[in-house]
Structure to design on (1390 residues):
C-alpha cells in the first residue's frame, strides 16, 4: 500500500527569536496610512525585523510603529465631535481627491497641539517551511553591511538522521549545520550566502549526540559566532568586519563580498582552553571587549540532590578570550563553587560588566574580578549550597520563588525582568555604588504574561516574549520621568497601575493578568561620575526659569501586540457544532469540528478547528433574487450648490452604510434586475424593476448616482432607480458584441466585450454624465484583452515606481495615460493581483518595488513601473467545461460565473479584514492578514452564484450571498481566528488537558484535566507517612515567624513542597463550553488513558450501551513497589479502572433550561499494574496492566470480569481495535498484531515486529481491501507494516513486514482514524489518519493508488533536484531513515 503524508497545520509557537535589520524597509519610512487625517499625519516606520522559528518553520516579521487612528464609538461623542463642521449651502467645496466636502468655515474647539498616539504591530514578510530542525537564529553584521546597512541572518539546524542497526539497536545521529542568509530585493526573499556543516566532526559521531541540545550564539560586535557541539566543543565561524581584518588575513576584497567569513574551525574546550571545562550548561558572548570573549558555565563534576553530601557547589564559570588570528585563548576569569543547580547565564550591558547566573533557587552576579553577589529567592538555597549569603532585608526572607523554566532579559543597564515559568514578571534592580555592584533587589510580581520559551530585547523599549505553549507577546518597556512629591521617598519601591487600563485579577493567587503596569526603580543612587546626558543647570531651585521638581525614572510595561499560537497537541477528537445557534430563527446544520487539547498551565484549554470558514445565516432574502449578480451600494441623496449636485452631509459613521441592493437574474429572458431597499421589521422591499441582465453596478459621482452596466449599454441611474443617461455600446450604427465584464472606479468605467475588446468611459462630475473615451490608439478593434480592472494605489508604491520619459498629456497610447492624463491626484492603475487561469489554477501575486533587474529590458518604453510581482498563494480548481455546441438558453442559465469580488469587513470592533471572494464551484474566501499573510478558506457551499458585502442593516460584517439555497444574509462567527491554514477558535480554560473523548449519543465531550497538587508520601494502608506535628511562632532568621516542627526540626515557611500530577474528569458541552459535571480523583491520582467503549448492559433495548472507560495511576512515592510487578518502577504506584456513564438529569432552571447531563460512576476496579491504555471490542473492554493485555466483560452493570489476557511486552503505550483485531504498541517491543475470539475466549497473536522500537501510537490503515499498520515512535519516525503470512520473510506471519520508514521529525501524541470516501463512493471507505504532534503539527496520511504514487515520486525528485531550497537543506535527507546491517533497503512508500 502507498500513502501520502500532508502537513495540515505547521508547528505552533515560537522557540527561537532574534531581532535585526534584515529588509530594506527598516531603513526608510513607510507612507502615511490612507485613513490618517492631516491632524494625525505620522509617517509609519519599521523599527526592525523579528525572525521567529519553531521546529521546521521560520517566519520573518516587520515591527511597525503606526499612528492610532482615532475611533469614536459613542453616538453622542460622534455628534459632539462633528458639531460646527456641518456643510451648508455655499460652504461646500470639492477636495483634490474628489471624495466629499470640506467645510470652509473654521471649526471651533480644535487644538493645534495634538499628541499622536502610536501602536506597534507585527506584519508578516515571509514564511518558510524548512527541511531541517532549527536550533537557533541570530542576526549578524558582515563586511557587506557597510554598503547596504542591512544585517544577515544566521540559522543553525539539527539535521537528525536515525540510523537503524538491527544488531546493536537504533542510533540517532545529529548533523549540525549553520546557514548564512541575506535578503534579496530582486526575489523579495531570503537567499543563501553560505552553508557550514559539521556532519563529519568527531563530536557528532558519539552515541549520545541525540541527547545534546545545540546552542547558537553570536558576538555582540558580529566578529564571530559559536555553535555548541557535543563533547564540550564549539564550532567557531569568524566574520570579516573591516578592511584591516582583510589585510591581516591577506584576503582579496572583491572575493570577500561573496565570502564574508574566514574558515570555520572546531574549538575543543578541554584540550585548548581548560581541562576543567566539561559538561557545558550554557555560554554567552560578553560585550565591551576588544576581542571576542566567551563566558562558559560548566560542571566538571556532575551531581544531583541525592549526592549533595558528597558533591555540592560543583558549577564553574570560565571567561576566556578568542584570539582567532593567533589561535590562543587566554582565560580572564575563573570562578568555582557556584550552586549545582545553575542553568543559565546572561551577559550584562557593557556599562555594567559581568554576568548574571540563574539557578533554581537564586540569582548570582559575577564581575570580571570574580566578585560575587547573590540574591536567594527561597529557603532551599541554604540547604543545597554552602555559598555565603549576605544579610538579607526583611522582605527578602519571605521570597519563595523557583526559577526553573524562567527566562530573563535586561530592559535597561541596571534593570532586568525575570519571567517565571507561569508567566509572572518580576523586576530585579542591580544596585551599583560607584562602579561596584553591592546587591540585587527583586520587587513584587509586576504582571502575568505568556509562558516563556525565549525572551529578546529587540529595541531599546521593546521586549519580545516567545512561547511554545501559547501566544507570543511584544511588550513595551519604556522609561519615562515621573514627578513625585517632595515628601515622598525616592528609594521606596513603587508599583503603579494605570487606572485607565483594565486589569484582570486571578482570585486564586492574587496575580494580575498582564495588560499594562509600571514600576519605579526601587533604589535611586546618584552616579558619582555624572550622567551620560547633559542636564539643565539648577540655580536656587530653578531650572530654565521654572521651579525644579523631584522626578524618578519609571519603566512602564504595556502589551503592544501578540502572535497567536496554541502550542502542543496532547489529544484530539471530532465533535459536531452548530454555527447558527442563537441567530434568530435559522438553525444551521451541524458541521464537524476538530477539538484539540492544547497549551499548558494557565494557557491550557481547547483549540477548535473547522475546515470551512465558519458563518451563520442571519436571514433569508428570497424576494430579491440575484442568481446572476448582487451589488449592495451606498447611494446618497444630493444637494445642489451653484448648479452642481453633491452628496448631502450626514453623520460619517452612518454615511458608510449601504442604502440599496441591486440584483439581477437571467430568467426570464433577456434578464431582470431589481433595486431593493430596507423596509420595516428588517425586511426588504422592491422599489424598481429593470429589464435586462446587469453586468456590474457601483456608486458614481461621489455616491450620488448608480453606474449601471448591462449587456449592451452603460446607464446612469438616480438613487430612486430612474434613468438619467444611457450610452449604448454601438460601433456607429452596428451593435458591438455583448459586454461580458466591467470594472468601475469613480469616475472611470472599463468594459470587456465577448470578442475580447475593451472600452473606456469617463464621468464628468460637473454635468453628472459620462462620455466615451476614444481607445483607437490602443487598438480598439485589433487588440484583445482577457480581463482588466482598476486599482486605487493608496500605498504610493506605483507613484514611486513610475518611470516616464515623456509628459503624460499626449495621445492615449496607454491605459494609464487615459485614466490619469497629467493629473497629480488620484492614481488608477491597470492591475490584476488575483489570477485564475484557464487550466483552473488560482494564483495570487503581491506587488513590490524594485522589479527590474540589472539587465535592460528588450523593449524600451516611454513609461514603465519598476515593480515586481511575487507569488503569494496558489491553488488548483477543477474546471467543468461545457460540451461543444451547447449554446442554448438553458445552458446560459446553468453557467456558473467565476469572479473575484473584493470586500472589506469588520467582524468585531477594532478588527478589520480585507480580501476577495471567489465565486463559482468550490467558492473560497481569500483573506489578507497582517501576521500570517494570505489565507484561502472554503466557504462551505457547493456553489455560489453571486456575492457582495452588505451593510444595509448597519453592520460592517454582513455579506449577501446567493448559493444553492438561494439568497441569504450571513456573517462570520467572530470567535474564530484566521491566523492559520484552518479557521480556529481558542477556548481558554486556565488548565491543560491530557485526554479527550466525544460521546456521539449526547454530543458532549469528556475531558481529563492535568493539574498539580502538593505531594504527600503514603504507606501500604494509604495513610500519610508524615504530617507537621505542631505549629507555633518562634524566633527564626532574625524575626518572629510561624514555623512547622517536624521530628524536632524547624521547617521555614519559604520551603516549598514538591508537586505531583493529579487529574479531574469534566463533562463539557461543546455548544456553550461550560462544564456540566465533573469527578475529582485523589490528589496523587492521574489519568493515563480514556476511551468510549460499548459494553453489554441490561438497561437498554439493544443490550449494549456506551460507557467512558478511564485508567488511572496513584503515585505513592519512591518507597513502595508497584503491586504485582516483578520489579520496581521509577515512579512506584498502584492503578485503578473506572467505568462512567453519561446520564440525563432534570436541569436546574437557574443554570439552564435545556437538557442537562451528569457523570455517573458505575464501576471502580483496582488494578495490579499500570493501566496505560484502554479501548474496546464490541461488548468488551480491553486494557493494559503492566506488560499484560486484559479483555473484560461488564457483568450485571456493576463489575468487570476478565475473559482473556496475553503477555505482550514491557510497557504498553497504545491500543487500537478494528472488529476483532487488536494492535498493541509497546515502549520497547514495538508493535504486536493480535486477534480475539469468543468461543472459547482467547487472544491469539498473529504477528509482531521483532525490532526494539519505542512506539507511541499504532493505528490500522486500510484502503481497497488492503490492510496495513502505521506506527510512530518518540523520534517521529512513521513506519508502515504489512501482515502477509504468504511472504517467506514473515515466518508464516509471525513477523510483521516493515514496508517503509518516514521521518516526520516530531513525536505523535494523538491520532484519529476517519473515513475517506472517494468520488466512486465505495461501500467500504478508505482510512485517513490525522495525527497531532508535540510541536503543534497537524498532519494527515492518506492512501493513494500506485500510479498516482509513482507520479508524485517523480515530481518529488524533480522538485528536490531543480528547486533552490532555503539554507541549502536537502528535503530527501530530511525524511530519510538510514538503515544498516539489513539485507535489503526499505522501499520508500510514504
Amino acid at each position: 500500500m502507498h500513502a501520502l503524508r500532508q502537513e495540515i497545520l505547521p508547528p505552533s509557537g515560537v522557540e527561537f527569536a532574534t531581532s535585526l535589520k534584515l529588509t530594506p524597509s527598516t531603513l526608510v519610512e513607510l507612507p502615511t496610512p490612507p485613513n490618517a487625517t492631516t491632524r494625525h499625519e505620522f509617517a509609519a516606520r519599521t523599527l526592525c525585523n523579528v525572525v521567529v522559528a519553531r521546529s521546521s518553520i521560520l517566519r520573518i516579521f516587520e515591527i511597525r510603529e503606526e499612528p492610532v487612528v482615532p475611533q469614536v464609538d459613542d453616538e453622542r461623542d460622534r455628534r459632539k465631535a462633528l458639531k460646527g463642521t456641518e456643510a451648508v449651502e455655499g460652504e461646500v467645496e470639492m477636495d483634490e481627491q474628489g471624495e466629499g466636502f470640506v467645510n470652509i468655515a473654521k471649526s471651533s474647539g480644535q487644538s493645534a497641539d495634538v499628541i499622536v498616539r502610536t501602536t506597534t504591530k507585527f506584519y508578516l514578510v515571509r514564511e518558510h517551511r524548512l527541511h531541517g530542525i532549527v536550533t537557533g537564529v541570530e542576526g549578524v553584521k558582515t563586511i557587506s553591511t557597510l554598503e547596504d546597512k542591512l544585517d544577515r541572518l544566521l540559522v543553525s539546524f539539527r539535521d537528525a538522521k536515525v540510523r537503524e542497526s538491527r544488531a546493536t539497536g537504533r542510533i540517532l545521529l545529529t548533523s549540525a549545520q549553520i546557514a548564512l542568509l541575506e535578503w534579496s530585493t530582486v526575489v523579495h526573499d531570503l537567499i543563501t550566502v553560505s552553508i557550514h556543516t559539521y556532519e563529519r566532526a568527531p563530536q557528532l559521531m558519539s552515541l549520545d549526540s541525540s541527547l545534546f541540545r545545540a546552542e547558537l550564539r553570536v558576538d555582540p560586535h558580529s566578529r564571530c559566532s559559536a555553535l555548541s557541539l557535543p563533547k564540550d566543543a564549539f564550532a567557531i565561524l569568524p566574520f570579516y568586519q573591516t578592511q584591516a581584518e582583510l589585510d591581516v588575513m591577506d584576503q582579496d576584497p572583491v572575493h570577500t563580498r561573496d565570502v564574508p567569513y574566514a574558515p570555520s574551525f572546531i574549538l575543543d574546550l578541554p584540550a585548548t582552553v581548560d581541562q576543567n571545562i566539561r559538561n557545558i550548561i550554557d555560554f554567552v558572548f560578553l560585550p565591551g571587549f576588544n576581542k571576542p570573549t566567551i563566558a562558559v558555565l560548566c560542571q566538571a563534576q556532575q551531581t544531583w540532590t541525592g549526592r549533595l553530601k558528597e558533591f555540592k557547589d560543583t558549577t564553574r564559570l570560565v571567561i576566556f578570550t578568542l584570539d582567532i588570528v593567533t589561535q590562543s585563548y587566554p582565560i580572564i576569569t575563573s570562578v568555582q563553587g557556584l550552586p549545582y543547580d545553575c542553568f543559565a547565564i546572561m551577559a550584562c550591558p557593557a556599562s555594567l560588566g559581568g554576568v548574571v547566573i540563574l539557578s533554581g533557587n537564586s540569582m548570582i552576579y559575577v564581575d570580571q574580578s570574580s566578585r560575587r553577589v547573590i540574591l536567594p529567592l527561597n529557603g532551599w538555597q541554604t540547604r543545597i549550597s554552602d555559598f555565603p549569603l549576605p544579610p538579607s532585608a526583611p522582605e527578602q526572607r519571605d521570597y519563595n520563588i523557583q526559577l526553573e523554566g524562567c527566562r530573563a532579559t535586561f530592559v535597561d543597564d541596571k534593570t532586568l525582568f525575570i519571567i517565571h515559568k507561569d508567566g509572572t514578571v518580576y523586576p530585579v534592580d542591580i544596585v551599583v555604588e560607584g562602579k561596584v555592584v553591592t546587591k540585587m533587589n527583586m520587587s513584587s510580581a509586576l504582571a502575568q504574561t505568556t509562558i516563556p520559551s525565549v525572551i529578546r530585547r529587540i529595541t531599546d523599549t521593546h521586549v519580545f516574549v516567545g512561547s511554545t505553549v501559547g501566544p507570543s507577546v511584544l511588550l513595551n518597556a519604556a522609561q519615562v520621568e515621573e514627578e513625585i512629591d517632595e515628601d515622598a521617598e525616592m528609594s521606596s519601591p513603587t508599583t503603579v497601575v494605570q487606572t485607565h487600563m483594565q486589569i484582570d485579577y486571578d482570585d486564586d493567587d492574587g496575580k494580575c493578568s498582564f495588560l499594562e503596569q509600571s514600576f519605579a526603580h526601587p533604589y535611586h543612587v546618584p552616579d558619582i561620575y555624572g550622567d551620560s546626558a547633559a542636564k539643565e543647570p539648577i540655580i536656587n531651585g530653578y531650572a530654565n526659569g521654572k521651579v525644579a521638581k523631584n522626578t524618578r525614572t519609571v519603566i512602564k510595561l504595556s502589551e503592544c501586540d501578540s502572535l497567536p499560537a496554541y502550542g502542543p497537541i496532547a489529544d484530539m477528537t471530532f465533535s459536531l457544532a452548530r454555527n447558527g445557534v442563537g441567530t434568530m430563527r435559522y438553525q444551521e446544520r451541524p458541521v464537524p469540528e476538530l477539538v484539540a487539547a492544547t497549551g499548558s498551565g494557565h494557557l491550557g484549554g481547547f483549540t477548535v478547528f473547522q475546515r470551512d470558514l465558519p458563518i451563520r445565516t442571519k436571514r433569508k432574502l428570497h424576494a430579491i433574487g440575484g442568481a446572476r449578480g448582487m451589488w449592495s451600494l451606498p447611494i446618497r441623496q444630493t444637494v445642489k450648490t451653484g448648479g452642481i449636485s453633491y452628496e448631502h452631509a450626514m453623520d460619517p459613521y452612518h454615511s458608510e452604510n449601504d442604502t440599496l441592493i441591486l440584483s439581477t437574474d437571467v430568467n426570464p429572458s433577456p434578464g431582470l434586475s431589481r433595486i431593493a431597499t430596507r423596509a420595516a421589521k428588517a425586511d426588504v422591499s422592491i422599489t424598481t424593476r429593470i429589464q435586462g441582465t446587469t453586468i456590474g453596478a457601483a456608486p458614481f459621482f461621489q455616491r450620488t448616482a448608480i453606474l449601471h452596466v448591462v449587456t449592451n449599454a452603460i446607464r446612469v441611474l438616480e438613487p430612486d432607480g430612474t434613468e438619467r443617461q444611457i450610452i449604448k455600446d454601438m460601433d456607429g450604427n452596428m451593435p458591438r458584441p455583448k459586454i461580458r465584464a466591467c470594472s468601475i472606479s469613480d469616475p472611470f468605467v472599463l468594459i470587456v466585450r465577448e470578442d475580447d475588446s475593451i472600452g473606456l468611459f469617463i464621468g464628468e462630475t460637473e454635468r453628472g454624465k459620462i462620455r466615451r473615451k476614444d481607445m483607437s490608439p490602443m487598438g480598439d478593434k485589433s487588440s484583445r484583452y482577457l480581463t482588466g480592472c482598476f486599482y486605487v494605489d493608496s500605498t504610493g508604491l506605483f507613484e514611486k515606481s513610475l518611470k516616464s520619459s515623456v509628459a503624460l498629456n499626449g495621445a492615449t497610447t496607454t491605459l494609464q495615460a487615459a485614466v490619469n492624463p497629467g493629473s497629480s491626484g488620484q492614481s488608477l492603475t491597470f492591475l490584476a493581483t488575483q489570477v485564475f487561469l484557464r487550466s483552473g489554477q488560482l494564483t495570487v501575486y503581491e506587488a513590490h518595488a524594485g522589479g527590474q533587474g540589472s539587465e535592460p529590458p528588450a523593449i524600451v518604453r516611454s513609461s514603465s513601473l519598476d515593480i515586481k510581482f511575487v507569488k503569494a498563494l496558489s491553488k488548483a480548481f477543477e474546471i467543468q467545461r461545457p460540451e461543444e455546441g451547447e449554446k442554448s438558453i438553458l445552458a446560459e442559465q446553468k453557467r456558473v460565473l467565476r469572479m473575484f469580488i473584493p470586500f472589506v469587513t469588520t467582524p468585531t470592533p477594532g478588527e478589520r479584514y480585507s480580501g476577495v471572494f471567489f465565486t463559482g464551484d468550490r467558492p473560497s474566501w481569500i483573506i489578507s492578514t497582517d501576521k500570517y499573510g494570505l489565507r484561502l478558506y472554503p466557504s462551505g457551499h457547493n456553489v455560489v452564484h453571486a456575492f457582495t458585502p452588505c451593510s444595509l442593516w448597519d453592520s460592517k460584517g454582513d455579506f449577501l450571498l446567493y448559493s444553492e439555497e438561494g439568497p441569504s444574509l450571513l456573517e462570520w462567527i467572530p470567535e474564530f481566528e484566521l491566523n492559520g491554514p484552518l479557521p480556529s477558535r481558542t477556548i481558554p480554560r486556565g488548565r491543560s488537558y491530557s485526554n479527550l473523548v466525544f460521546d456521539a449519543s449526547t454530543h458532549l465531550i469528556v475531558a481529563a484535566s492535568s493539574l498539580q497538587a502538593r505531594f504527600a508520601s503514603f504507606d501500604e494502608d494509604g495513610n500519610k507517612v508524615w504530617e507537621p506535628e505542631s505549629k507555633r511562632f518562634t524566633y527564626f532568621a532574625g524575626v518572629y515567624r510561624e514555623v512547622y516542627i517536624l521530628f524536632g526540626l524547624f521547617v521555614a515557611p519559604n520551603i516549598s513542597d514538591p508537586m505531583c500530577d493529579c487529574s479531574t474528569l469534566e463533562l463539557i458541552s461543546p455548544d456553550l463550553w461550560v462544564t456540566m459535571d465533573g469527578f475529582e480523583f485523589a490528589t496523587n491520582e492521574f489519568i493515563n488513558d480514556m476511551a468510549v467503549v460499548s459494553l453489554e448492559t441490561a438497561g437498554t433495548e439493544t443490550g449494549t450501551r456506551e460507557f467512558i472507560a478511564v485508567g488511572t495511576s496513584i503515585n505513592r512515592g519512591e518507597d513502595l513497589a508497584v503491586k504485582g510487578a516483578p520489579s520496581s518502577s521509577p515512579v512506584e504506584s498502584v492503578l485503578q479502572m473506572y467505568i462512567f456513564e453519561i446520564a440525563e438529569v432534570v436541569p436546574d432552571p437557574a443554570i439552564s433550561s435545556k437538557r442537562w447531563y451528569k457523570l455517573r460512576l458505575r464501576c471502580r476496579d483496582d488494578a495490579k499494574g499500570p493501566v496505560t491504555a484502554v479501548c474496546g471490542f464490541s461488548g468488551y473492554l480491553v486494557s493494559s496492566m503492566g506488560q499484560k493485555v486484559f479483555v473484560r466483560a461488564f457483568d450485571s452493570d456493576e463489575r468487570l470480569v476478565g475473559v482473556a489476557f496475553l503477555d505482550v511486552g514491557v510497557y504498553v503505550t497504545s491500543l487500537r481495535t478494528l472488529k476483532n483485531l487488536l494492535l498493541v504498541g509497546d515502549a520497547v517491543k514495538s508493535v504486536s498484531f493480535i486477534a480475539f475470539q469468543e468461543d472459547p475466549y482467547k487472544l491469539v497473536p498473529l504477528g509482531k515486529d521483532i525490532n526494539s522500537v519505542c512506539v507511541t501510537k499504532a493505528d490500522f490503515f486500510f484502503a481497497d481491501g488492503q490492510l496495513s499498520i502505521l506506527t510512530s515512535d518518540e523520534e517521529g519516525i512513521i513506519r508502515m507494516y504489512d501482515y502477509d503470512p504468504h511472504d517467506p520473510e514473515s515466518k508464516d506471519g509471525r513477523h510483521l513486514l516493515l514496508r517503509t520508514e518516514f521521518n516526520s521529525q516530531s513525536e505523535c501524541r494523538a491520532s484519529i482514524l476517519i473515513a475517506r470516501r472517494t468520488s466512486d463512493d465505495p461501500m467500504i471507505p478508505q482510512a485517513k489518519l490525522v495525527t497531532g504532534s508535540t510541536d503543534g503539527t497537524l498532519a494527515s496520511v492518506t492512501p493513494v493508488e500506485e500510479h498516482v504514487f509513482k507520479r508524485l515520486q517523480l515530481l518529488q525528485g524533480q522538485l528536490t533536484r531543480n528547486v533552490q531550497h532555503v539554507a541549502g537543506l536537502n528535503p530527501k535527507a530530511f525524511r530519510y531513515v538510514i538503515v544498516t546491517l539489513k539485507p535489503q533497503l526499505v522501499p520508500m512508500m510514504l
